[in-house]
Amino acid sequence: xxxxxxxxxxxxxxxxxxxxxxxxxxxxxxxxxxxxxxxxxxxxxxxxxxxxxxxxxxxxxxxxxxxxxxxxxxxxxxxxxxxxxxxxxxxxxxxxxxxxxxxxxxxxxxxxxxxxxxxxxxxxxxxxxxxxxxxxxxxxxxxxxxxxxxxxxxxxxxxxxxxxxxxxxxxxxxxxxxxxxxxxxxxxxxxxxxxxxxxxxxxxxxxxxxxxxxxxxxxxxxxxxxxxxxxxxxxxxxxxxxxxxxxxxxxxxxxxxxxxxxxxxxxxxxxxxxxxxxxxxxxx
Amino acid sequence: xxxxxxxxxxxxxxxxxxxxxxxxxxxxxxxxxxxxxxxxxxxxxxxxxxxxxxxxxxxxxxxxxxxxxxxxxxxxxxxxxxxxxxxxxxxxxxxxxxxxxxxxxxxxxxxxxxxxxxxxxxxxxxxxxxxxxxxxxxxxxxxxxxxxxxxxxxxxxxxxxxxxxxxxxxxxxxxxxxxxxxxxxxxxxxxxxxxxxxxxxxxxxxxxxxxxxxxxxxxxxx
Lengths: 284, 222
Prior knowledge:
The complex is a heterodimer of chains A (284) and B (222).
Chain A: H1 6-23, E1 32-33, E2 36-39, E3 42-45, H2 47-57, H3 62-78, H4 81-85, H5 89-95, H6 117-123, H7 132-147, H8 157-174, H9 180-194, H10 198-202, H11 204-212, E4 222-223, H12 229-232, H13 239-243, H14 266-270, E5 276-277
Antiparallel strand pairs in A: 1-2, 2-3, 4-5
Chain B: H1 9-14, H2 18-45, H3 49-52, H4 64-70, H5 76-80, E1 86-88, E2 101-103, H6 115-119, E3 137-140, H7 146-149, H8 155-159, E4 165-167, E5 173-175, H9 185-189, H10 192-195, E6 206-209, H11 211-216
Antiparallel strand pairs in B: 1-2, 3-6, 4-5
């Protein structure tokens, strides 16, 4: 796995999921989008969509319960792989201008600052978990229950990305220009560029998956303390922390919240001493 | 919510006193929940909500409140429609209805094949008997209809699949609103827009309106 570039593989899987949607747009297939994807009568709905529509309609939607549970099970077993390997948002984000992360290792070089390992430890001795995603999730569910329709769908960057794609195709196919061609990308731009930390702080789907992935014990990133520069040489290396989309700090001395990990492997690939592994099972 | 400094979460929190971190949490809750609640309120109460009552929905989606509560905008119905009459709502049709499917009779007509109903994952389009399903009512717009203004055109009468249109003694079309199931073939083929383009512009001589609209406005073709 270390020889294969995870970024390229992720682009492949994400590109494949987008391709499946595009191919599925033909009349004979009608597979749908990530909002709801399936074959014929059997479809799975976005887990947040499932919860919202169950609330709004006060129905159980039994046909969708099994796919919902299956998705949750996948997340328990593999963690938030949807975020890292299927969701198009990280890919779209990488195309948009986003502020570079600051830090003493912006150039990728670990610099000794004269800080000892003690300072590195105190810095991260109170890892506070960004909970805003959970609040957005609560807000989405509450708002849907109160107002009677799935509210988050209005601004979901996944839905709006596909909607923009569809609108462009309709523009060429049916000569149908709509204001959606401006409004939808604008909303996605605001969410991903202006608000920036979408995946780690705001996305309610990610927050939902994150709740379930707390049980996840496989493929959890862990640092080999005998290699990590913080532990062995006392350097204030922050490469893995700065590389992490989810702002997880794996370095020695911290208690990282690995339930947020989207398994993108950016940390492992950027680590100068290859100290990060993704073992099949985490020994606690 | 917005992290202005670009530092990771750990660095932020370490500088907080307990009060400011409590305030931060409170602000985060407020913004997270508040924004979503505001969005829901805006969509529910914006003035164009009345317009969504007039949108013609695919078969099985006639109960607008139920339909909006279940539609997740997956576009599967649009993809499968063989006559391509299903189109996404424009943003201007209302925020809550944006991207939900409506019938656009400029592009096609509904043949009640029910493929959209079959595919709908959340059952926003309910299973209905295609023979009994009524997606809308055809209304003759006499100001634009050619025979009502001059005479000669009888194409909607000739082509109506359920024979809901009859001609009166002056050969002008009259819609039987009970028989009409809103399939929209009449609107699709009405030539008034093209033949009268010097005056009529965007109007056709016969249009489909949703069943709610037809009864509430008291509009009668005769």
